[in-house]
């Protein structure tokens, strides 16, 4: 968050410049600087800054300017005066201080009646007229002026949007769309209800016909005005595709504007936070040439005003989030990846205070540890050596949970708006115990469907449940929900939380059709990751070795044996292939794979860093996923992000994520009462050979799977939807809108 030292540096610069300016207006004059200084003085409780602000306000009020514009003239000064009176920065009478200026504004507006250019340029003046209505509620002229200004702008958009269809259109489309964004923002913030629905229809038609670019701000304000959800598709696509835009080239005011609807305060505050020695360079980079740097219009005045307002908003509306999970030191799981991604994404939401309670199975960890970083507090607590023995003993599990809470209680003391985001079902009893002590909310995140992991530990039970679930053909009723439960805590994980987050629709189907007893608040939020792909894939010649990549822990349900057998078939047909295996595996496996497949070119890397893995994603020709049970696989999403052509089994979440022949090649699974569930190895070999032989297919899949990542699995979407769940749980939406 922007700190006091940075605020005072900016104030010093503004005060030095305030001595030399002649303009009295809001955007580049004394009124704008006065507005900023009043906000700063109240925040810092600084009498000297307040005195300077008052002097500048007095000077602006005595100005003899003939300019009545909002940006540089009298209406902007009047707006500042009204704002300061309404928000009790000063005690004053508007009539006493501003009657002559008000009459001057009215006189000039009357002279300009019917002047479409004046009315078009006066759009922001409606902020002044909307504010002044509280002083003169019976003056009907004000409503007429507001209406005429909006209608002049609507006429402009009507003409421009019609001309957009002309292939010879030469005007700057971006300028028109930016103006339209400003129009929507002004309509919404001025609470104007008689706006033209025809203009919104015209915009929506152009967008649906791919004639204009996406804008998050436009989507945000259209959504506020779209009471009948007439433009829902346009709004959602605008939000989706604008998330992909870089904000690096934004000027300062664009950073401010984008931070309001998206609530992405870090995008704004990162300009000033923790970069003291680079502050001048960073700010000047985002202020356009020729702008008044100290001013409110395009300078640091507006940045400081907006930042201080939102510091107060964040303090009032903060959410205390507690991420609770369990992990094993020997393996990096998909849940571990998710939590790392979530915590990284939460840096952009300064209203959320993140605490991570991490229960760790680690032979090198004896004592609980607490560390505080810039963005979160992490409390790591060792699991008992014999933790598995207390899972089924509720009495002793509760005793352990009491100890965990004793060690973490200080994180909850005197905190409001507390949410536990639980990522390990075995810890639901801990979450419930904490809720009993604190009244917090609980979210259970269903990263996997537990019974499907029985494939690795109890294949007989897995086969029985698989047959009941997928092969009964409606002839038999589903088993009792208890049949699917794998431990004493699982059912409570579905019934006790205030919200359930699933990563796929197949998980929702499991809850509704198999468990049937669960909280009603279920939402599907696909996993997302930040975009690390900054490398182009290289074209290969036919003589090159074809590099295949398997990523993930090596166990039965991940299907590595089927991958090896499929590649064996491919190699026997004279194709030159190599398989790289990146993931946790035992030394026994490494020995067996070399002895069982001596003719295969195999590189077993084991567990590697993500930087090493990124290199493999770029260098490999295809990725192979042979899982027999999978939800929103991070491996699948990473491969998609790097545009790696994929051969995948058509199971669970993988079948949802990919479309066969469009962005991946799918392989069927088979089930028999004797062998159980298995992968069609011949089909897998066939799909691999297709990608070796058909460069056009391989390139098409690479292009399409990259687009799939950008559209559905980017980090911005995941974070936006997850944070929205947090806000809904603590009923913060209305407060945040204010």
Indicate the overall shape: elongated
| Unreliable residue runs | 262-267, 732-738
Nearest-angstrom radius of gyration?
A: 31 Å
CATH class of the largest domain: Alpha Beta
Secondary-structure content class: alpha/beta
Distance between the termini: 20 Å
Question: How many strands, which pairing sense, and closed or not: the largest β-sheet?
Answer: 8 strands, mixed
Query: Number of domains in the coordinates?
Result: 3
CATH topology descriptor of the largest domain:
Rossmann fold
Q: Give helix % range.
A: 40-55%
CATH architecture of the largest domain: 3-Layer(aba) Sandwich
Work out the helix count. 33
What is the average per-residue confidence, as pLDDT, rounded to a whole number? 88
Give, in spatial order, the strands making up the sheet with the most strands.
3-4-2-1-5-6-7-8
Find the count of extended strands (DSSP E, 2+ residues): 16
According to CATH, the homologous superfamily of the largest domain is Glycogen Phosphorylase B
Q: Strand fraction band?
A: 5-15%
Draw up the topology in text.
Blueprint: H1 4-18, H2 30-44, H3 47-61, H4 74-86, H5 94-111, H6 116-121, H7 125-132, H8 140-163, H9 173-189, H10 197-208, H11 216-225, H12 232-242, H13 252-262, H14 265-269, H15 279-285, H16 300-317, E1 319-328, H17 334-345, E2 352-361, E3 369-372, E4 376-382, H18 394-412, E5 418-422, H19 428-438, E6 441-446, H20 454-457, H21 459-470, H22 481-484, H23 490-495, E7 499-502, H24 505-515, E8 522-524, E9 546-551, H25 560-572, E10 577-582, H26 587-596, E11 601-606, H27 610-619, E12 622-625, H28 634-641, E13 646-649, H29 652-657, E14 665-667, E15 669-672, E16 676-679, H30 681-693, H31 695-712, H32 715-729, H33 733-737
Parallel strand pairs: 1-2, 1-5, 2-4, 5-6, 6-7, 7-8, 9-10, 9-12, 10-11, 12-13, 13-14
Antiparallel strand pairs: 3-4, 15-16
EC number: 2.4.-.-
InterPro entries: Glyco_trans_1, Glyco_trans_4-like_N, LANC-like
Keywords: Glycosyltransferase, Transferase
């Amino acid at each position: 968050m922007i700190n006091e030292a940075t605020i005072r540096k900016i104030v010093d610069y503004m005060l030095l410049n305030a001595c030399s300016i002649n303009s009295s207006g809001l955007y580049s004059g004394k009124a704008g600087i006065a507005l900023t200084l009043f906000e700063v003085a109240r925040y810092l409780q600084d009498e000297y800054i307040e005195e300077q602000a008052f002097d500048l306000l007095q000077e602006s009020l005595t100005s003899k300017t003939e300019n009545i514009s909002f940006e540089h003239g009298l209406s902007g000064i009047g707006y500042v005066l009204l704002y300061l009176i309404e928000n009790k920065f000063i005690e004053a009478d508007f009539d006493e201080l501003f009657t002559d200026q008000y009459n001057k504004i009215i006189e000039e507006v009357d002279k300009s009646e019917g002047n479409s250019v004046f009315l078009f340029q006066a759009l922001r003046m409606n902020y002044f007229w909307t504010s002044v209505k509280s002083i003169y509620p019976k003056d009907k002229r004000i409503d007429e002026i507001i209406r005429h200004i909006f209608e002049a702008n609507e006429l402009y958009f009507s003409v421009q949007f019609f001309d957009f269809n002309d292939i010879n259109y030469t005007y700057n489309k971006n300028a028109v769309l930016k103006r339209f964004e400003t129009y929507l923002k002004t309509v919404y913030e001025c609470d104007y209800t008689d706006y033209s629905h025809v203009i919104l229809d015209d915009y929506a038609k152009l967008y649906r016909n791919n004639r204009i670019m996406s804008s998050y701000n436009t989507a945000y304000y259209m959504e506020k005005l779209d009471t009948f959800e007439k433009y829902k598709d346009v709004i959602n696509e605008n939000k989706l595709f604008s998330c992909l835009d870089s904000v690096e080239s934004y000027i300062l005011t664009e950073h401010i504007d984008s931070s309001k609807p998206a609530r992405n305060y870090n995008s704004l505050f990162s300009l000033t936070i923790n970069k003291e020695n680079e502050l001048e360079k960073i700010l000047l980079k985002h202020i356009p040439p020729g702008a008044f740097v100290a001013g409110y219009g395009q300078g640091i005045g507006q940045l400081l005003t907006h930042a201080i307002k939102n510091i107060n908003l964040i303090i009032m509306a903060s959410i205390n989030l507690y991420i609770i999970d369990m992990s094993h030191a020997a393996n990096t799981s998909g849940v571990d990846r998710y939590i790392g991604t979530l915590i990284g994404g939460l840096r952009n939401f300064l209203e959320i205070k993140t605490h991570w309670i991490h229960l760790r199975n680690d032979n090198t960890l004896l004592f609980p540890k607490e560390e505080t970083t810039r963005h979160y507090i992490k409390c790591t607590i060792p699991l008992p050596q014999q933790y598995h023995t207390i899972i089924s003993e509720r009495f002793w599990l509760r005793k352990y949970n009491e100890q965990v809470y004793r060690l973490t209680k200080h994180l909850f003391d005197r905190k409001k708006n507390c949410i536990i985001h639980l990522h390990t079902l075995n810890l639901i009893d801990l979450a419930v115990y904490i809720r009993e002590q604190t009244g917090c909310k609980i979210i259970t995140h269903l990263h996997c469907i537990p019974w499907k992991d029985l494939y690795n530990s109890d294949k007989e039970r897995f086969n029985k449940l698989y047959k009941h679930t997928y092969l009964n053909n409606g002839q038999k009723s589903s088993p009792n929900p208890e049949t699917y439960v794998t431990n004493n805590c699982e059912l409570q994980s579905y019934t006790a939380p205030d919200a359930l987050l699933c990563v796929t629709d197949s998980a929702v189907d499991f809850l509704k059709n198999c468990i049937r007893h669960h909280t009603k608040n279920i939402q599907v939020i696909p996993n997302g990751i930040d975009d690390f792909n900054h490398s182009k894939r290289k074209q290969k010649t036919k003589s090159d070795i074809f590099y295949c990549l398997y990523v993930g822990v090596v166990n039965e349900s991940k299907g590595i044996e089927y991958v090896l057998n499929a590649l064996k078939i491919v190699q026997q047909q004279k194709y030159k292939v190599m398989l790289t295996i990146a993931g946790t595996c035992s030394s026994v496996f490494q020995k067996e794979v070399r002895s069982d497949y001596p003719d295969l070119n195999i590189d077993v890397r084991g567990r590697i860093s993500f930087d090493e893995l990124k290199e493999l994603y770029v260098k490999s020709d295809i990725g192979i996923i042979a899982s027999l049970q999978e939800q929103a696989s991070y491996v699948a999403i990473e491969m998609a992000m790097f545009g790696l052509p994929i051969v995948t089994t058509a199971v669970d979440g993988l079948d949802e994520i990919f479309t066969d022949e469009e962005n991946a090649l799918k392989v069927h699974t088979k089930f028999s009462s004797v062998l159980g569930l298995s992968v069609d190895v011949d089909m897998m070999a066939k799909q691999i050979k297709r990608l070796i032989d058909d460069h056009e297919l391989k390139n098409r899949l690479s292009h399409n799977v990259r687009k799939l990542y950008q559209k559905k699995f980017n980090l911005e979407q995941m974070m936006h939807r997850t944070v929205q769940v947090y806000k809904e749980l603590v009923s913060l939406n209305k407060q945040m809108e204010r």
